[in-house]
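We emphasize that the prediction below concerns an isolated chain of 132 residues; any contacts that depend on oligomerization or on bound cofactors are therefore not represented. The input was used exactly as deposited, without trimming of termini.
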Amino acid sequence: MMNQLELLKQKTKIEVYWKQWIMQLQQDYPKHEIIDQIKGDPSEAYTAIGVTLTKNNLKLEVLIEHDTDTIYYGIRKIECSETLLLKISDFIKSLGFINKTALWFGFKDTSYENGYNDLKAFIDKVIKFTEL
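Result of the prediction step, given as a token string:
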């Protein structure tokens, strides 16, 4: 169990990364809608940042999110046609992402140190996918 000092260090680390990543997303993807779902304290459970992309007039949310113990990135589910659902599922599976859940088409764990680079590389792949 973490003591108070360790908890404070973890909270500060998360806040620093999250703020940097939001600014970096705005610079790297100025033509895309930025998702900033930080409600209050970024170290609280289930904060998410990322970009919204469009395929066949439907939105895809490509995010990095953390809960209390883990950080992961992927494509969060949205309403879409069965055909698009299959295409997204096949695409994400081909990249080795964990099977879809109730909220995600697929996701992968990462670390704070690698998180933004992993997310950016994935966003770039999803952009190419949306252009097909």
